[in-house]
Design a protein that fits this description.
The structure is a homodimer.
Chain A (H helix, E strand, L loop, with lengths): L4 E6 L10 H13 L3 E6 L17 E4 L2 E4 L1 H11 L10 H26 L12 H12 L3 H5 L2 H11 L1 H7 L12 H15 L10 H15 L12
């Protein structure tokens, strides 16, 4: 495969502010497979530039003539097409089981994190994205962004309860996937990087989850740690 | 290994009513490994009979001189000591990832199921267990069993929301572990068998989760389907 792989990656007004949890899953999966990637700063309203994928959301990964989308489907593609590189799943059972972790992150963790950080997002978006973001998110939550933002503290407390199963696992092993990170970690860590890039640490300092976040920040040559954030992170 | 394996298995007043979700995990894992087991009907207050395990809860699995406890640790033991039998985890990454599923079932699913069925339990217990059960569970929930039971309908609605990540997975694959059941399925299914033995179907008939429950009831020669229940189940 000699084609350059290209990733359409959600950005804020600042081209370098890359905060999509789903795009981070793909960035980490590409790094895990050792696949070089050229990222393209993309905004919510730039539907035309990814129209060839047949839908309107990122990540979109372009490999030759293939336009791939949906972070889970991209991970499966990478696993199947780069079989010599380190495995994302550790076999068929690991793949199936990682899908549960992925679903939990998408359906439980992402909404819980969104309630903690959504108020910070509009000001960081490209101006052309702001109406789109407000309209779609207020429809999804059924309330104004301001009313969600006003409940940030209880949302953070609720999120930390939501982390219970992750905490229970990480108290016993270094990564969700075991001794080394793999896609089960990428699937979950995307949400933590989302919040971090936007200036929020989700887990308390003494939480086993925070120690894992640090390990994930160091993984893959510090890929996630070196990302541009809105505020300097310790 | 020629020793007979013995499982202390929680029972109601009826010796044959075996309803512990954690014991069901072990029953299914033993069946998966093809390990014959002799189960012993055990009640909550029979701490003396399992004292050699060094703690007071079941499942307790006795293999020769070994007294094993904690369903997850028992599964790891079975995987490591019966390596020729079908794998419970499909390798190291699958094992680590299944631990997340197991934690989610223990920390999120079990309490949500308990809120749906706890009111049915005291009448089915051996009389000597009733005070123990009420005292420990009312302390854990911080309220009376009657007040929990009065909210059965909203608890069932909440449980069905809790099932979202499981539903998302089972809409796409036959088992949590993929094409065939493995420990990630046992870890979750224990809760469904707990409710079923006590007379409650947790998932709606048209839920992808219900189709999986039926597959799990048929697995291992119908081990779970053939269990004694308090009411005939369709």
């Amino acid at each position: 495969m000699s084609d350059t792989v290209r990733l359409y990656d959600l950005a804020g007004e600042d081209d370098d502010l890359r905060f999509s949890p789903n795009c981070w899953r793909t960035r980490l999966a590409l790094a895990h497979k050792g696949v070089p990637v050229e990222t393209v700063a993309w905004r919510f309203t730039e539907k035309d530039s990814i129209a060839r994928s047949g839908q309107g959301k990122v990540p979109v990964l372009v490999v030759g003539d293939l336009w791939l989308y949906e972070s889970w489907d991209i991970a499966e593609y990478l696993e199947d097409h780069f079989p010599q590189a380190p495995s994302l799943f550790g076999g068929a059972v690991g793949r199936a089981t990682a899908r549960f972790v992925n679903q939990w992150a998408s359906e439980v963790l992402h909404p819980a994190v969104a309630r903690c950080i959504i108020g910070d997002i509009p000001a960081l978006l490209h101006p052309k994205d702001r109406d789109y973001f407000r309209t779609t998110r207020e429809a999804a939550f059924g309330r104004s962004l301001e009313s969600i933002a006003a409940e940030r503290e209880p949302a953070l407390a609720a999120l930390r309860q939501t982390l219970a199963p992750l905490r229970g696992v990480l108290a016993r092993q270094h990564f969700v996937a075991g001794a080394e990170p793999a896609y089960a970690d990428h699937a979950v860590f995307g949400a933590f990087q989302w919040a971090r890039v936007l200036g929020t640490k989700l887990a308390a300092a003494d939480d086993a989850v925070s120690a894992w976040v640090e390990r994930m920040l160091d993984a893959y040559g510090g890929l996630a740690r070196n990302a541009t954030c809105v505020a300097p992170m310790v």
